[in-house]
Amino acid sequence: MATTCRACDTDFAGVAAFDLHRTGEFAGSGGGRGSRRCLTMDEMKSKTKKDGTPLFEFVDGEVATFKTEEDKAKLRALGKKET
Ligand SMILES: [Zn+2]
Predict the structure, then answer these.
(1) HEC per residue, 14-41
(2) Exposure string over 13-50, b if 16+ CB within 10 A, otherwise e
(3) Ligand 1 centroid distance, CA of 38 (Å)
(4) pLDDT value at position 14?
(5) How many whole angstroms from 4 Cα to the centroid of ligand 1?
(6) pLDDT digits (tens, 9 = 90+) for 3-62
(7) Helix (H, G, I), strand (E, B) or coil at 12
(8) Backbone angles phi, psi at 3, to 5 degrees
(9) Is the C-alpha dihedral spanning 56, 20, 80, 72 positive or negative?
(10) How far, in Å, is the centroid of ligand 1 from the Cα of 63?
């Protein structure tokens, strides 16, 4: 289920986390190349939600982001899988 970013070669536990690590503007709207890029690992680590908890979590080499405890439980289950 992991999503690997072809640009920065980072593994994400889901599309939601993948989407959140992309930042900047898409090319085309302003006639330029756009500033779309990946957040760096340091940027991801420093991102927090409004309540101060980390936006991204790092489990077994995969980056994840979760809104609910239920999602976190899924991540824990994912982390236990045989590889
Ligand atoms: Zn990336």
Answers:
(1) CHHHHHHCEECCCCCCCCCCCCCEECCH
(2) bbeebbebbeeeeeeeeeeeeeeeebbeeeebeeeeee
(3) 4
(4) 84
(5) 8
(6) 999 999 999 988 888 999 999 887 776 666 778 899 999 999 999 988 888 889 888 788
(7) strand
(8) -110, 125
(9) positive
(10) 11
Which two structure tokens, joined as six digits, stand for 31? 């006639």
Q: Which two tokens stand for residue 49?
A: 């939600």
**Cα 58 to ligand 1 centroid, rounded to whole Å:** 15
Specify the amino acid at residue 78: L
Domain region containing 46: 3-79
**Distance (Å) from CA 13 to ligand 1 centroid:** 13
Residue 59 neighbours by CB distance under 10 Å: 13
Tally of structural domains, the chain: 1
Written as one letter, the residue type at 42 is: D
Both tokens of residue 10?
A: 């980072």
